[in-house]
Each structure stands twice: as C-alpha cells, then as structure tokens.
Amino acid sequence: MANTTSTETLPAKPSARSLTVMLWIVATGFFMQTLDSTIVNTALPAMATSLGELPLRMQSVVIAYSLTMAVMIPVSGWLADKLGTRRVFMSAIFVFSVGSLLCASAHTLSQLVLWRILQGAGGAMLLPVGRLAVLRVFPAERYLPALSFVAIPGLIGPLIGPTLGGWLVKIASWHWIFLINVPVGVVGVIATFIFMPDSRNPDTAKFDLKGYLLLIVAMIAISMALDGHSEFGFAHATVLVLLILSLGFFTAYGLHAVRTPQPIFSLDLFRIHTFSVGILGNLFARIGSGAMPYLLPLLLQVSLGYSAFEAGLMMLPVAAAGMTSKRLVTRLIFRYGYRRVLVTNTVLVGLAMASFALMGAHQPLWLRLVQLAFFGGVNSMQFTAMNTLTLKDLGTGGASSGNSLFSLVQMLSMSLGVTVAGAMLTTFTGIIPRVTEANTLPAFHATFVCVGIITAGTSWIFAQLAHDIRRPAPKTDPSERT
Q: Are 185 and 100 in contact (CB under 8 A)?
C-alpha cells in the first residue's frame, strides 16, 4: 500500500529455531483463515435446521465473513506498520478465535452473522500481516522458500474445507466447525508472543481514512443491494437507491484518489494494461467461481438428498482436478498467450457452471463425478491465469498496493458471488411455478445457467488483451497464486 516510508524498526536477528516456529505460526494462521472460507458451506443445511431457518436463506453466513475480510484487508498493512507485526498478528489470532467461539454459541441467524463478522475481522489480518512479518525477518535469498511454505496450508484449506465440514457435522455437530479453531488459536497466541519478532515503521504515513470509508460504504452498499430483496425484503426502490449509492461512492473514491498524494489505492495502477484487465476480469469472473462452493453443497443436500459428509466427499474431484491442472495452464500460456487461453477458458468455465443445470436425481454417479472434475480443472486454470496476468507487470514499485487491491477484489468478488447466487435462488424459487420446498431443483438449475452466462460473458474483458502477452509472472509470492 502506498502509505509507508522506508524507515523501519526491525527486530534483532532471530535464531533459526524462532524462524522455523514463526513460519509454522504464520502458515497455521493462513490455514485457519482459508479453511473457514469454505468449511461452512456443507454445514449450512444443518445450521439452518438448528437455527430454525430455511437452507436457501443462509447465504449471509458466508457473505458476512468474506465481505468483512474485503473491508479489513486495506487497513491490515497500516496497522502492522503502526503497532508492530507481532502485536497485530497476535491480536488477529485472538479476535479470530473469540469470533469462532461466539459463532459456535450462536442461537439465531442474526447472532451467527454478527460473530462471523468478528471472525472475519481477525481472519483478514492473518495472511497479510503474517506475510509482512516473514518478509521483514527472513533474508532475501530465503523469501521464496519461506513464502512457499506459508502458502501451502492456504492452498489446502479451501480444498479440504467442504469435506471436513461435512465430516464434523456427521460425527458431532456444526458447532465444531468453529470450536476446532479455539485450541489452535490459544496455542497460536502464546507461540506468537514467544517466537515472532516484532517490527514496525515509526514513520508510517497518515492513514487514508477518507478513501477507506468511501470504499467501505461502496462495497457494503453494493452487497446489500444485491442481497437486500431476498435476504432483508427490501423494496425494489431501496435496492435501486443502494446500487446508485454504491456507484456514487466508488466514483467519489476515484476523484479522491486523483487529488490525494498517498491514496489507499493509487489509480496509477490502472495505467498498467495487464493489471487493469486482470483486476476487472478477476472481479467479474470470480462472481461465478465464488457462487459455486456455496451452490454445489447446497444442491447436493437440499435437492438431491445427500448428507453433509457425502456432499463434502463430492467436492474432492473438484479439488483433485484443480491441483492437477495447475501445471498445464503455464504451458498453454507460453504456447498460445494469455488472451487466447483466458478467452477460451472463461467460456469453458461458464459452460461447466451452466452444465450443472442438467444434474438430476437419476444422473449416473460417474457422470456427476466427471462433471465436477471438469469444472474443478478449468476453474483452477482460470484462477492461475487470471492471477499471474494481474501481477506480472506490477514491478517492485506497485507490488504492495497492487497486491492489496488484488486481495480486496478476491474477497469482494467471493462475497458478491454468494450474494448473487442467494438472490437468484430466492427469485427463481418465487417465480418458477413448479418449485416447492420439497422440489427446489428447478430453482438451482436456473441459477446455474445464469451464473454460467455471467462468467462466460467475462471473456469479453480478456479479449481486450494483446495477442502476444505470454510471459507468466515471476513467482515472488506464491500465496497470491490461488
């Protein structure tokens, strides 16, 4: 972020043992944060039954977490500079753990959403502050292996989340999805206090509070506009006002950033063609990708009669195919270029999403598994290609601000994806005549088709790229490659 100067207070050189323990602390924190972004998906029907809610009205549990993370990401780096990496990271683990404990004790949906916001506020600071702490104490020649070690648990968390969530529901209850974080958090707070070196920047520039507030209001307004009619029963006029308000505040931030010497995100970043196309493509393509982890477990349980554990197991082909296809996309980019790969693959991802409209009770299991694996493969290739395109030309000057903005867009689009999916499900449940509480399959089918169309349409953004862009980004920060 463009709000710090170069003078920093660095800790004394830590021992090799302290460095190793510190890596494990940061990696575990990243794992907890990413795990909780997907672990609740398979447990939503069980939560709904326990809280006396409808399963199709539980999207706010997911939205609250991801939207809060998007809101908190811009301030995390400034807090670490001002207060010190150890203090902020320790506080982040504490807040995340307390939020998890309160989520497990929730008796109403409103309480659960409120505590998910608290949990998200802590989780948002775990990765950026932990990564900053690693960068400040490790020598340059050890950056890549250190960041790679930290990144691996973050890649595993979202993959095993649905299966682990379903398993915990099966052997215990949905409350244990949150309770498992508490003992890990207690150990993490103690270990951080003992082993993590502290560093801060005493010359930290004044935080761009005005720009931050403009962005927060804009993000919350657009989320409430998209979810307001289905979740809160807002009238259409209120939804329209919120959409206009969101557009107005985003515009106001743009005008503010032009006049401010050190805005929270500089608009100069958008002069980099690959970054601007990558950010816009990530924002809209990830709406569909963010909707799928919410829609698929819900479809399997609510419409097809799967248990939570069985629905979690069905997500394994998605994860396995995603991990397998990551190596393929780099070769394709070198051979065909970013433009051709992203335009083609975005359409394939959209078609894969829309193909779930063909899923029914009599579909053979093998075909269902192939369908899930194909989606997992092309979706993983999409993430890798979009992410490397976005970061490849930032250079050292814009890396900090660009990475922060990129992380914000990832979290915001994940939130918007669940918001859009939930709104569509509610709308189609009300307008399709044959949809009942016992037969929700047509509403899911219509939602998958719409999500697929939205995603495939994003290919137009990637079509603006030049034909000869082929060089992937250097692997400076593997944690951003998911």
A: yes
pLDDT value, residue 5: 42
How many other C-beta atoms lie within 10 A of the C-beta of residue 183? 10
* Cα–Cα distances in angstroms (integers) from residue 84 to residues 80, 253, 255, in the given order: 5, 28, 32
Extract the tokens encoding 410: 């990832």
Q: What type of residue sits at position 442?
A: P
Check: CB of residue 337 under 8 Å from CB of residue 470: yes
Lowest average pLDDT, out of 5-14, 71-80, 422-431, goes to: 5-14
Report whether 391 contacts 199 (CB < 8 A).
no
Domain of residue 402, residue span: 265-474
Q: Is residue 435, in this structure, part of any structural domain at all?
A: yes
The b-or-e profile of 304-317 (16+ CB within 10 A means b, else e) is bebbbbbbbbbbbb
Q: Band the pLDDT of 460: cuts 50, 70, 90.
A: very high
pLDDT number for residue 472: 57
Please tell me the predicted confidence (pLDDT) of residue 398.
53
- When comparing pLDDT for 343 and 16, which is higher? 343
| Distance (Å, whole) CA 74 – CA 87 | 18
354 and 415 belong to one structural domain: yes
Number of domains in the chain: 3
Query: What's the token pair of residue 43?
Result: 């447990």
Identity of the residue numbered 35: L
**Token pair listed for 304:** 């097809």
340, with CB counted inside 10 A (0-12, 13-18, 19+), is middle
How would you class 337 by CB atoms within 10 Å of its CB: exposed for 0-12, middle for 13-18, buried for 19 or more?
middle
Question: Domain boundary at 174, 197, 220, which?
Answer: 197
CA 293-299-302 angle, 5° bins: 130
Q: DSSP string spanning 319-353?
A: HHHHHHHHHHHHHHHHHH-HHHHHHHHHHHHHHHH
